[in-house]
Every structure is written in C-alpha cells, then in structure tokens.
Design brief:
Layout: H1 3-37, H2 44-52, H3 56-70, H4 80-116, H5 122-148
Helix pairs in contact: 1-2, 1-3, 1-4, 2-4, 3-4, 3-5, 4-5
C-alpha cells in the first residue's frame, strides 16, 4: 500500500468517525428534545443548544483535514513516514471525537430531560458537557502538532 493511500485512509477515518460521533450525539439530544417538548415547550432554546453541542466534534475532524491538506503533504511525493503520521493523526482524532460526541450526547440528553421536567440544570449541564469535549480538543491539538512535525 502506498503512503498516499495510507494518508487518505487516515483522513477518511478522521472525517468519518468524527462525523458519525456527532450525528449520534446530536440525535441523542434531538430525541431527548422531542420528549421534553411534550412536557415544556417554552424551553426549546435550551434544548436546541444542548442538542447541538455534540456537533462540534465533527467540525474538529473536518478542521483537522484542512490543517493537513493546507500543509501540502498530501501529494504523490509523500513519504511512508508522513503517510503513517497522517494516518495516526486521523485515526486518533476520529476515534476520540467519535466517543467524545456520543458521551457528550448522553450528558446533554439527560440535561434536556431535566430541563423538560422543570429543573434548573441548563448551566450545570453545559459545564458537565464540556468535559468530554476537552478530549476532542486535545486530539485536535495533537493532530495540529503531528502536522507541524511533517
């Protein structure tokens, strides 16, 4: 397998896994919103913000692709070392973003249910939802650092 193919497999994992994670996380929030709307329609703004939060991990995967693409390494002249580095960055960011978005979606869904039940937990849910996000940010930063080493 050539270095460029290995690199593009990493890019595919980066974008694909992070996007799947965001889709799952946002769907969890959306499902919780539908249930909460039956109890309290007035809090739709809070539901929407919490539902959208897991979408950021998909953006990290997409931004990671732009960082690597802008470096100019994705050419026919790519070395095997560079191809493996791009693959590793893509796999790491994709996997971390996948899991982070799903876990964040669970936290947000529980917060949506709490707000729908009349509890004042929006702010606390936002704070708790930041914790899984932190690891996606760390993986994105690692992608940036790996790219800088190319």
């Amino acid at each position: 397998m050539s270095a460029i193919v290995i690199a593009y497999l990493g890019i595919a994992l980066m974008i694909g896994l992070s996007g799947v994670g965001s889709a799952i996380g946002v769907s969890m929030g959306g499902n919780a919103t539908v249930g909460a709307l039956k109890k309290n329609e007035e809090a739709f703004g809070s539901y929407m913000l919490l539902s959208a939060l897991p979408s950021t991990q998909g953006l990290y995967g997409f931004a990671g692709f732009f960082i690597i693409n802008a470096s100019g390494v994705l050419t026919d002249d790519i070395t095997m070392r560079q191809g493996i580095a791009v693959f590793a960055a893509g796999f790491a960011l994709g996997l971390v973003a996948l899991i982070s978005a799903m876990q964040q979606g669970r936290i947000c869904a529980n917060g949506i249910a709490g707000v729908g039940a009349g509890y004042d937990v929006f702010g606390k849910t936002m704070v708790l939802a930041v914790f899984p996000e932190l690891y996606a940010i760390v993986a994105f930063a690692a992608t940036f650092l790996i790219n800088a080493g190319l």
